[in-house]
Specification:
heterotetramer, A alpha/beta (335), B mainly alpha (316), C mainly alpha (370), D alpha/beta (525), C: 370 residues, mainly alpha, 75% helix, globular, D: 525 residues, alpha/beta, six-stranded mixed β-sheet
Chain lengths: 335, 316, 370, 525
C-alpha cells in the first residue's frame, strides 16, 4: 500500500511539474472564470452574471479578456472546477452563489495569486477574496411599495424559495415596502423549499391566489413558475419581479415592474481592482447608490393600475435610497 | 376566511396537483398488474415533460402552432411508450433485476431530457400551454363546480381515465390477460397467452401514461420545462400504486389524499400558521411511508408475481 | 468449464460495454458533440495532471464508502436507494459532534466525529430496515421517501439550529454551519490538493467489509439471509434482524461518507454536500460486482468518469446532465449483462453456437461443449 | 373450435431437448390415436413432463418432429396446440387463484375476446355445457382460491375440454387426490376415453393398469419400452421403469421400544389466510421409531412442519420435546434442543442455492466453536468437515466449492441429510424427503433414515407417497383437516384402509370410530 502511494505521488508530482511548465507563459489578457449552480441561461440569478461578464468582455474587446464558465456545479464539483481554473492560471474566479462561500474560503490560501469572488455575502474574506452583496432589500422595498399601493384585496403573495441568501433580504425589504405604502395590507409569505421547483412555485402561487392575493412577487429562478400561474389567472392579478428578464417574456404583460442586478459594475470593479494590485479583502456592495441595480417599469402597463401616484412614490423611494436618505433595517423584520 | 372556504380552496387546488401523479400511477398500475415494477416512471415523466414542451415550443412560429399542444402530447405518449419498450427489453427479455433497472431508467430519462433541452433550447422559456376549460353549466354548480369542473382538458382526461382503466383491467380481454400474467404467468402461458408480449404491451401503455403525466407537468402545470421539473413525482406515483392496492379507484384516492396534503401544507404557510416550512414540505412524504406501513395487509390482493421475471424454460 | 465461463463472461462484458458506449455515442452525436473527443476527455482528461488525479481520488472516497454499504445491503437482500439521505444525516451529526467539543484533542474528536456521522446514517438507514422487517414496507419506496424527508431535515438544520452565527451577523444567511475545529479535520495527504486521509479510511473499510462478509459468522448470516431467506429461517437465522443490521451498516457507511466529506473536504456542513453520491454509489457497487475488491477500482473509475464528464462541459461543450445519461446507460447495461451471465440457458446456447463455430473453424471438435 | 379436422393421431419422432447439464429428452418417438389411452410411465426426472411441454409448445425441441393427423406441426405456444385440439392438465394446476373459474377459461378462449368486450357469460355457459356433458360439476362463478384441490382438478379438466382439446394430456392427475377421488377420476376418464385420445402420465402402476391401453416407459429421457398394458404385470413395468429390480429398504425392526421423545398436544396453528389449519392436533413420537404421517397434501402437513421448526406461530397447544415446550420458540432454540429437519422444498428451504456445498453443510452450525472462533469462520475446519461428509454421504459434486444449486435433486437432498444427521439430533422431521429424486438416491436416503432409527433417533416422516410411509414406518398417523384422525401400527395398515382414513371417513376396521369422536390423536394400541 505504501509503495503504491509513493509511486502515485511521484507520478503525480511529475505530472504537476509538467502542467506547471505548460502554463509558464501567462497571457497578457485577464482571464475570468464563472461557476454557477444552475445554467447560464436560466433567466435569473446565473444568467444575469453571465450576461454581465459577456457585456464587460464586449466592452473590453474579446482579445483583452478570456472567459470560461462551468454550469450545474454542486459544491464538490465547483471545488474541483475552481481548482482547475486556478491551476490553469485564471486570474479571477467568480463562484456565483452564497453556497460556494465555504469552498472559496478553503481554496483561497492554496492559490494566493488568484482572485476569488463570491456572493451574496457581505463578509470580508481573505486577502484574495472579494465578496459582493446585492442589497436586495432595496429592490424588495420598491416592489413592496408598488404591491402595497396596487392591491385591491389587501392581500399580497410572496413566493419564497427558501429563507436565505439574497432571497431573505428581498423578502424582508418587500415587507418594509408594503408596510410603508399600505400598513393594512397582509403579506402571504410561503416557501417552496427549493430554488428550482417551478411546479411547486406555481402551485404555491395558485394557493395564494385562491387565498385572495392579487399582487404577487417571488425570488430566484423558481419565481417564473409563480409568474406563469399569475399570467394564467383572471385579469386584475399582477406581479412585481426581481428580474428584468421577466418583462420581456409573454407573461411580462402581468409584470408591473421589475428590478435587476447590474453585475457588470461588479465585474468591472473586480478587474480594475486586481489590475491596481488589490487581489481581494473587500466586500463590494450592490445598491442603487452605486449602480448595482436596474429598475424598470413595464412600459405597456395599464396606467390605471400603475398610476402616476404609484410611480411617484416609487421614484421618490429610489432617489432616497440612492442618496442614502433612506436606510432599510431589513434585519429587524420578523417574518 | 371561513373554514368552509378554506377547505374549498384546498380542494380546488388539490385536483390539478393530483393529475400528474394520477396519470403516472394509473400507468404504473398496468406495469405492476402485469408483474413488472417500474421505478423508471420518474425518468419517463422527465422525457414526456420535455417532449410535451419541446414540440409546441418548436412549432411556435409555424402554421402548425395551433396543433402544438396536441402534437406535444402525442410525442410525450410516444416517447413514454418507447421508454416502456426499453424497460421491457431489459426486464422482460433480459430478465434483469427490476428495482435497479428502474433506477437506471430514471437516471437515463432525467439525464437525456436535461441534455437534449440544454442543446436544443437552452434556457428557461415558456410555452402557452393548455388553458382551463370551464364546463358550461357544471362549473357553476356551487362547491363542486370549482373543485371539479374548471380545469384543463388533461385534468378531465385523467379523471375519466380512472373508470376507463378500471374497465380495461376488469372488463376487457386484455385486462384479463394482464391480471393473469402478473399473478400466475405460467398459467397464462399454458392458456396460449404470450406472457412477454402482454408485459411489453403493459409497459408500453404504462410508459405512455407516464409520458402523458410528464406532458401535463410541462404543458399545464408549469407551462415550461426545466430538467428538475418532475422532481421525484414519479417515485411518489409508484408508491401510490401500492397505496391504492392496485385498483384505479384506490389510486385516485391516494393521489387526491397526497395532493390534498400538499395543497394543505402550502395553504397553511399562506395562512401564516407558524412552523418551519421544511416540515410542511416533508409532510406528504411522511404520509406515504405511514400509509405504506399501514397498507401491508393489502399485499396479497395485488399481483403476486410482481417483480419476478418469467422464464418459460425455467423448471419447477 | 472454468475457461469457458471466463470466455463467456468476457464476451458478454465486451458486447455490453460496446453497446453502452455506442448508445451514449449516439446521444453525443445527436447533440453535436464528437463522441470520440468526449470519450477521450472523460477517460484521459482527469489523469493528465496531479490535480486531476487527486480530485479523482477525492470523489472516489465517498463513492467507495457508500458503495461498500450498498454492497452489504444488497448482499443481505435489501435494496438501499436511500444513501443520499443517509449521507445528509451523517453530515449533520458529525458536524454537530465536532462543534460540540471544539477543544477536544484530535485523538478523541476525530473518531467521535466519524462515529457520530456513521451512527446517524445508520439510524436513518435502520428506519427503512425496520419498516421492511417489521411492517414489510417495500424498502425501495421507503428509502426514496426518506431521501426527501432527509433533504428537508437537512435544510432545516442548516438554516435553523446549526446556522453559523456569523452568517446572521453579516446578514449573508448562507445556509452553512460553523467551521469545524481543526482538530476534527482529516489530514491532507498531498499538500496543495484536496486528497485527504479519508482515502486510507475508505481502503481500510473495504478490507473490513470483505472480512466481515466472507470471514465472519455475522457476514455468513447476512449473506445467507440475502441469498436464501427461506433457508436462513429454517437454519435458525432470524432474517428480519439481519435486514435491519444490513440497513444499519449500509446507512452507517453512507453516514460515514458524509462525515468524511465534512471533515476531509468541506470542513463544515454546507448545502448540496451529498452531490448525488448516494445514487452514483449504487452504480459503483453494481459495477464492482458487490465485492470490495471490485468496488475500490470501480469507485476510482467513477471518480474519473465524474471529473471527466465535468471536463467535457468545458472542452467538448457537452451538457452537464450527460453524466446522468452515462450512469443510466451503465446501470441498464450492467443489470442486463448480469442476467446473461447468470442465465445457464443463454450460456449453454452461446457455447453450442460457439462450439459449432469453433469446430467448423478448426475441426477441434467440442472444445467448448464439455 | 377450429376449421381443422379433429385430431385423430399424434406422432412424435426423435424429440430431443437439452437443459443446461441435462439431456431431458433423448430422441423420443411416440404415437397416440383417438379412442386410445397411452400411459407414459417413468421415474421423476425421466423427462415425461418436459416431453409433454414440448407437445404443448411451451418448450421448443432441439430436434425432432411432431405430426398431427400426418401433417408436421410447429407449436410456438400452447395456443397453437389447443388450435389443433391438444390440451393438457398440468400437475401443478394452471389456474390464476384470484380470478373466477369463468375468467380462467375466458383467458384461453380467444373467440370470447372482442375488442373491448369480454364475454364472461359465454365462458360460463360453455363451462356449464361441458360440465353437464362429462358430469364434472363446476361452479363458473367461484374464485379458484375458494376451491379444494379436487375441485380445482375438475376445473382444470373442464377448462381443457372447453378449450376444445380432443387429445388430453394428464400429468400425474392423481398426485394430490385421495384414493377415493383417484378411483372416481379413473372412472370418468375411462368414460371419456372412447371419444378422446388421452396421454396419461403417472408412476402409479395400478392406475396405469386400470386406465391405459398401451404403455410407454421413459428412462433418462429415452423410451425404453412400448407395449400393450394388458400383457404386462405392474411388477414387470416397475422393473423396466427403474432399470433394475429395485427393492427399497423396508423397516423390518420390531416395533416401538423407546421413551416418548416428542409430544404434541392440542396444537392449533393458523394458515396463510388466517384460518385455523391445525385444529387441536396431538401426536407422540418415541425414540427409535419412524412415525409416518400420511394424508392428502393440504390437510395441515405444511403448517405442522412449520410450527415444529418454529417458523409459524402457535395459537395454542404444546410441543413438548425433551421435557421442554418448544411452541413459539425461535428456530434457533428448537435446533439447539436437538431437532433435525429435512424441509419440504429442498431448493429454497433446505439449502441456499448460490452457496457452495461446504457453506451449506454448516448452515446450522457455523456459529458453533467447531466452525468459528471469536466470530471468525474457521476455514480449515469447514473444508475438512465438507470433505468428510461428502465421502460419508456419497454426495456427488465436482468439489465442495461448487454451488449447491447446480447439483441434482438427489445430491441436494444428500447435502441436507448429511448436515442434519451429522449434527446428531435426537429427533428428525423429514418432509417429503424423496419427492422427485431418482431411485438410487431414494434408496440411499431410506437406508440412512432406517439406520438413524436403529441408533435410537425418533423420526417423523411426512409424506404423501403411501409406499414410502408403509415401507419405513413403525406407526402411521393419518392427518385430515388439521387433526390426527388415527394412529395405527404399520403392520395393520393397508392402502385401502389408509385411503379411507385420508378421505376423512370413519375407519371401517374400528366400528363406531367416526371422525368427530376421535379423541384427538394419541395412539391407541
Amino acid at each position: 500500500m505504501k509503495a503504491f502511494f509513493k509511486t502515485a505521488l511521484a507520478a503525480a508530482t511529475l505530472l504537476g511539474l509538467f502542467a506547471g511548465s505548460a502554463q509558464a507563459a501567462p497571457a497578457p489578457k485577464v482571464r475570468v472564470a464563472l461557476i454557477v449552480e444552475s445554467t447560464v441561461d436560466d433567466k435569473g440569478w446565473c444568467q444575469s452574471m453571465h450576461d454581465a461578464i459577456l457585456a464587460v468582455q464586449k466592452k473590453m474587446g474579446a482579445g483583452a479578456m478570456e472567459y470560461s464558465h462551468s454550469e450545474k456545479m454542486k459544491p464538490v464539483d465547483a471545488g474541483s472546477a475552481a481548482r482547475q481554473y486556478a491551476s490553469k492560471g485564471f486570474d479571477i474566479i467568480i463562484c456565483h452563489g452564497a453556497q460556494y462561500k465555504n469552498l472559496v474560503d478553503e481554496m483561497a490560501g492554496v492559490f494566493p495569486n488568484t482572485t476569488f469572488a463570491y456572493g451574496t455575502s457581505a463578509n470580508i474574506g481573505a486577502k484574495n477574496v472579494f465578496t459582493y452583496t446585492p442589497f436586495s432589500e432595496e429592490t424588495g422595498y420598491l416592489n413592496g411599495i408598488i404591491a402595497g399601493m396596487v392591491t385591491k384585496t389587501g392581500k399580497i403573495g410572496n413566493v419564497g424559495p427558501v429563507d436565505g441568501g439574497d432571497a431573505a433580504r428581498y423578502i424582508r425589504g418587500f415587507q418594509l415596502g408594503v408596510q410603508a405604502a399600505n400598513p393594512k395590507a397582509a403579506i402571504r409569505l410561503a416557501f417552496t423549499g427549493s430554488f428550482g421547483d417551478f411546479v411547486k412555485a406555481g402551485e404555491l402561487a395558485q394557493t395564494q391566489l385562491k387565498d385572495g392575493a392579487d399582487v404577487l412577487t417571488g425570488a430566484a429562478q423558481q419565481a417564473i413558475g409563480a409568474l406563469r400561474a399569475v399570467a394564467a389567472a383572471p385579469a386584475g392579478i399582477w406581479w412585481v419581479g426581481q428580474d428584468t428578464a421577466q418583462l420581456s417574456i409573454p407573461e411580462g404583460s402581468r409584470v408591473l415592474a421589475a428590478s435587476g442586478y447590474n453585475y457588470a459594475s461588479v465585474v468591472e470593479n473586480l478587474i480594475a481592482k486586481r489590475a491596481a494590485g488589490t487581489k481581494g479583502g473587500e466586500s463590494l456592495p450592490m445598491q442603487f447608490s452605486n449602480g448595482g441595480f436596474h429598475f424598470e417599469y413595464n412600459a405597456k402597463a395599464d396606467a390605471k393600475v400603475l398610476t402616476p401616484a404609484v410611480k411617484k412614490a416609487v421614484d421618490k423611494a429610489r432617489e432616497d435610497l440612492k442618496s442614502g436618505k433612506l436606510k432599510l433595517d431589513w434585519k429587524a423584520v420578523k417574518l | 376566511m371561513s373554514a368552509g372556504l378554506m377547505i374549498y380552496n384546498v380542494l380546488c387546488l388539490a385536483v390539478p396537483f393530483s393529475v400528474a401523479l394520477l396519470l403516472a400511477a394509473l400507468g404504473e398500475n398496468f406495469n405492476q398488474r402485469a408483474g413488472v415494477f417500474n421505478l423508471g416512471c420518474d425518468g419517463i415523466m422527465c422525457m414526456g415533460a420535455f417532449l410535451g414542451f419541446m414540440v409546441p415550443f418548436s412549432l411556435k412560429a409555424t402554421p402548425w402552432a395551433a396543433y402544438g399542444n396536441l402534437l406535444g402530447i402525442g410525442a410525450a405518449l410516444a416517447v413514454g411508450a418507447a421508454m416502456g419498450v426499453v424497460f421491457a427489453l431489459v426486464t422482460v427479455t433480459f430478465r434483469a433485476s427490476q428495482g435497479i433497472a428502474g433506477i437506471g431508467l430514471q437516471m437515463l430519462g432525467w439525464g437525456l431530457a436535461g441534455t437534449l433541452f440544454r442543446h436544443f433550447v437552452g434556457g428557461v422559456t415558456g410555452v402557452e400551454g393548455m388553458a382551463a376549460i370551464a364546463i358550461p353549466g357544471l362549473s357553476k354548480v356551487p362547491f363542486l363546480g370549482g373543485v371539479l369542473f374548471n380545469h384543463n382538458a388533461l385534468t378531465y382526461t385523467a379523471l375519466l381515465l380512472v373508470p376507463a382503466c378500471w374497465f380495461l383491467l376488469y372488463k376487457t380481454p386484455w385486462g384479463l390477460k394482464v391480471r393473469a400474467v402478473g399473478t400466475h404467468p405460467r398459467a397464462a402461458d399454458t392458456m396460449g397467452i404470450h406472457v412477454d408480449l402482454i408485459r411489453y404491451q403493459a409497459l408500453m401503455l404504462g410508459g405512455a401514461m407516464a409520458g402523458l403525466a410528464g406532458a401535463y407537468l410541462s404543458l399545464c402545470q408549469a407551462k415550461m420545462f426545466s430538467d428538475d421539473l418532475v422532481a421525484g413525482r414519479g417515485f411518489i406515483a409508484v408508491a401510490l400504486v401500492y397505496f391504492g392496492r392496485w385498483s384505479p379507484l384506490g389510486i385516485l384516492g391516494g393521489a387526491l389524499l397526497f395532493s390534498i396534503a400538499q395543497s394543505f401544507q402550502l395553504s397553511m404557510q399562506v395562512w401564516g400558521i407558524k412552523f418551519p416550512y421544511e416540515f410542511a414540505v416533508m409532510l406528504p412524504y411522511v404520509l406515504v411511508i405511514v400509509v405504506l406501513a399501514l397498507a401491508r395487509k393489502a399485499r396479497q390482493l395485488g399481483p403476486t408475481d410482481l417483480g419476478k421475471p418469467y422464464n418459460r424454460e425455467m423448471r419447477f | 468449464m472454468n475457461r469457458n465461463k471466463i470466455l463467456y463472461s468476457g464476451a458478454i462484458i465486451l458486447a455490453v460495454t460496446l453497446i453502452a458506449a455506442l448508445l451514449v455515442a449516439l446521444v453525443l452525436y445527436s447533440i453535436g458533440a464528437s463522441p470520440l473527443a468526449t470519450y477521450k476527455t472523460i477517460l484521459t482528461g482527469p489523469l493528465s495532471d496531479l490535480f486531476g488525479v487527486t480530485e479523482v481520488l477525492v470523489r472516489s472516497v465517498p463513492l467507495m464508502l457508500v458503495a461498500l454499504g450498498i454492497a452489504i445491503s444488497f448482499r443481505s437482500g435489501i435494496l438501499n436507494i436511500g444513501a443520499e439521505g443517509q449521507i445528509q444525516m451523517g453530515v449533520i451529526a458529525s458536524t454537530a459532534m465536532a462543534l460540540a467539543m471544539p477543544h477536544a484533542p484530535k485523538a478523541i474528536l476525530l473518531p467521535a466525529t466519524m462515529m457520530a456521522g456513521a451512527l446517524a446514517g445508520a439510524l436513518w438507514g435502520g428506519i427503512a430496515g425496520w419498516l421492511k422487517a417489521k411492517l414489510q414496507v417495500n424498502e425501495i419506496l421507503s428509502t426514496v421517501m426518506l431521501n426527501y424527508i432527509a433533504a428537508q431535515v437537512y435544510t432545516f438544520m442548516l438554516r435553523g439550529p446549526m446556522l453559523d452565527p456569523n452568517e446572521l451577523e453579516t446578514g449573508s444567511g448562507t445556509p452553512q454551519s460553523m467551521r469545524l475545529p481543526e482538530m476534527a479535520f482529516l489530514d491532507t495527504l498531498v499538500p496543495g490538493t484536496r486528497i485527504h486521509m479519508g482515502l486510507i479510511l475508505a481502503l481500510v473499510a473495504a478490507l473490513l467489509v470483505w472480512m466481515l462478509l466472507w470471514k465472519t459468522t455475522l457476514g455468513y448470516r447476512m449473506r445467507t439471509a440475502g441469498a436464501g431467506a427461506k433457508a436462513a429461517r429454517y437454519a435458525g437465522i432470524p432474517v428480519e434482524r439481519y435486514l435491519i443490521v444490513a440497513m444499519l451498516m449500509a446507512g452507517g457507511f453512507a453516514g460515514l461518507a458524509g462525515a468524511v466529506e465534512v471533515s476531509g473536504v468541506h470542513h463544515r456542513a454546507i448545502e448540496g454536500i451529498s452531490s448525488g453520491y448516494g445514487f452514483a454509489g449504487i452504480v459503483v457497487a453494481l459495477f464492482g460486482a458487490l465485492h470490495p475488491g471490485g468496488i475500490v477500482p470501480s469507485a476510482v473509475f467513477f471518480g474519473i468518469l465524474l471529473i471527466g464528464a465535468d471536463m467535457t462541459q468545458r472542452s467538448a461543450s457537452v451538457p452537464a446532465n450527460m453524466v446522468l445519461v452515462l450512469q443510466g446507460v451503465i446501470i441498464l447495461s450492467i443489470v442486463s449483462a448480469q442476467s446473461f451471465l447468470r442465465n445457464p440457458y443463454a450460456q449453454e446456447r452461446f457455447f453450442r453456437w460457439f462450439g459449432r463455430f469453433s469446430s467448423s473453424a478448426r475441426k477441434a471438435g467440442k472444445g467448448a461443449q464439455s | 373450435m377450429t376449421a381443422l379436422e379433429p385430431i385423430s393421431e399424434l406422432k412424435l419422432e426423435g424429440i430431443t431437448k437439452r437443459f443446461p447439464g441435462v439431456l431431458a429428452c433423448d430422441g423420443i418417438s411416440l404415437q397416440v390415436r383417438r379412442g386410445e389411452v397411452l400411459a407414459l410411465v417413468g421415474e421423476n426426472g425421466a423427462g415425461k413432463t418436459t416431453l409433454m411441454n414440448i407437445i404443448m409448445g411451451l418448450y421448443r425441441p432441439d430436434s425432432g418432429t411432431i405430426h398431427v393427423n400426418g401433417e408436421e406441426v410447429h407449436f410456438h405456444s400452447p395456443g397453437d396446440a389447443y388450435a389443433r385440439g391438444i390440451g393438457m392438465v398440468h400437475q401443478h394446476f394452471m389456474l390464476v387463484p384470484n380470478m373466477t373459474v369463468a375468467e380462467n377459461l375466458a383467458l384461453g378462449l380467444k373467440e370470447l375476446h372482442h375488442f373491448m368486450n369480454l364475454d364472461i357469460k359465454g365462458a360460463a355457459k360453455r363451462i356449464r355445457e361441458v360440465s353437464e356433458r362429462y358430469e364434472l360439476p363446476v361452479n363458473p362463478d367461484a374464485y379458484i382460491w375458494q376451491l379444494s384441490v379436487g375441485e380445482q382438478q375438475r376445473v382444470e379438466l373442464v377448462k381443457t375440454l372447453c378449450l376444445g382439446a380432443r387429445l388430453l394430456i394428464l400429468d400425474e392427475p392423481t398426485s394430490a387426490l385421495t384414493p377415493q377421488e383417484t378411483d372416481d377420476l379413473i372412472v370418468r376418464l375411462q368414460r371419456m376415453a372412447s371419444e378422446l385420445a388421452i396421454i396419461f402420465i403417472s408412476h402409479k402402476l395400478n392406475e396405469v393398469k386400470a386406465l391405459s391401453d398401451r404403455v410407454s416407459i421413459l428412462r433418462h429421457g429415452a423410451v425404453v419400452f412400448n407395449g400393450q398394458t394388458a400383457n404386462h404385470e405392474p411388477s414387470e413395468l416397475a422393473a423396466l421403469m427403474t432399470g433394475h429390480d429395485v427393492v427399497l429398504p423396508r423397516n423390518e425392526g420390531s416395533s416401538i421400544q423407546g421413551e416418548p421423545l416428542l409430544s404434541v398436544q392440542n396444537l392449533c396453528v393458523r394458515g396463510d389466510r388466517g384460518n385455523l389449519v391445525l385444529d387441536g392436533l396431538s401426536l407422540e413420537l418415541r425414540a427409535g421409531e419412524v412415525l409416518g404421517m400420511a394424508g392428502v397434501s393440504g390437510n395441515g402437513q405444511r403448517e405442522f412442519a412449520d410450527a415444529l421448526a418454529g417458523l409459524r406461530p402457535v395459537e395454542s397447544g404444546q410441543i413438548l420435546f425433551g421435557g421442554k415446550d418448544l411452541a413459539n420458540r425461535t428456530p434457533r432454540e428448537i435446533i439447539h434442543a436437538g431437532m433435525g429437519y429435512v424441509p419440504e422444498d429442498r431448493q429454497t428451504e433446505g439449502i441456499v442455492p448460490s452457496f457452495s456445498v461446504k457453506d451449506n453443510l454448516i448452515l446450522k452450525d457455523f456459529a458453533e466453536p467447531r466452525f468459528s472462533k471469536m466470530a471468525f469462520l474457521r476455514k480449515k475446519e469447514i473444508d475438512s468437515n465438507a470433505e468428510a461428509l461428502k465421502e460419508r454421504f456419497d454426495i456427488r459434486c465436482p468439489s465442495t466449492s461448487t454451488a449447491t444449486g447446480s447439483l441434482s435433486g438427489g445430491n441436494i437432498q444428500k447435502v441436507i441429510l448429511a448436515r442434519e444427521i451429522s449434527r446428531g439430533p435426537k429427533a428428525l422431521v423429514a418432509v417429503y424427503p424423496t419427492r422427485g429424486i431418482d431411485m438410487g438416491a431414494q434408496e440411499f436416503i431410506h437406508e440412512q433414515l432406517l439406520a438413524r432409527r436403529r441408533e435410537g433417533i425418533g423420526i417423523l416422516l411426512i409424506s404423501e407417497e403411501l409406499e414410502e410411509v408403509m415401507n419405513l414406518s413403525d406407526r402411521i398417523a393419518v392427518i385430515y383437516k388439521g387433526k390426527i384422525l388415527k394412529v395405527l401400527p404399520a403392520v395393520e395398515a393397508t392402502r385401502e384402509r389408509l385411503g379411507i382414513l385420508m378421505a376423512g371417513l370413519a375407519d371401517p376396521d374400528t366400528p363406531g370410530d367416526a371422525q368427530a369422536e376421535v379423541p384427538a390423536g394419541v395412539a391407541h394400541e
